Model the fold of this input.
Amino acid sequence: MADPAGARIEEHWSNHQQQIDNDGYLRSATKFYIVHGFDNETDVLDYARRNTPDKITVQNRDVSRDSVEIEERLAEQIWKVAVSYPQDPENETDQGGDEVPEFSMDISGGTKHITHSKETIGSYSADENPAPDFQRAINVNDDNQVDGVDIVNCSFSFTEKHYYTNSKMSNSFKRQIASLVGKVNSNTFRQWETGELLFMGASGSRRGTARKDKWEVTFRFAVSMNATNIHVGESITIPSKNGWDYLWVKYADNVKNNSLVKEIKAAYVERVYDYESFTPLK
Done:
């Protein structure tokens, strides 16, 4: 059926409504039009559907048309219609409005291997000679090697569960996540100082394929806190060490009181992980 000779549509600019996100991108809009030349609602709606955009674009962001409704009949053949371009989860730039990550943590007793004590409380000899002074070295074996001992140490890890739109979970974003596995934070992240967080990886899944269905992604972090004034043996104090840097000690043999003992000659702090910004994980 052909449209009547007087049919036309024009935008009603004064009533347009738009919503943008925090990044300035369009999230939703409602546009109003005046339709002329029709006697009934069905023809008005069909004409407006055929003569309004399927989608609108602002800053390279598309929002698709969802519905066409009659707002008001202004005269016998003049109608005001509203065309809605509603908020679309696919168009969100972050994890979705007010939704915040879910946090969980595990603080437990792990093990730590040490080679020196904080203090030698006592040393006792089986004969008249004084017990050898190993300068707080623990479990020095018959080959004069320091075996050390495993002690209980704080093991701290936590996870963050985020909810992302399918458009956010692009291959580029997945590559960013993968590139950070096994890296240490190069700047403050979640109030943890530089050098204290090790990114252990991520896991995620998406239930459903509808545009509104989101990815559930869990990030895993391990914590090793920075330290200052670390005493190694009796003669070395290390001013500072980042949590995930590695400290090791060089020994040398020496003879004291007719006994062969191990003495610390030097201590070293090594960077064994790459440092990267964790900003993509926020």
In short: Residues 102-281 form one domain. The helical segments are 41-50, 171-180.
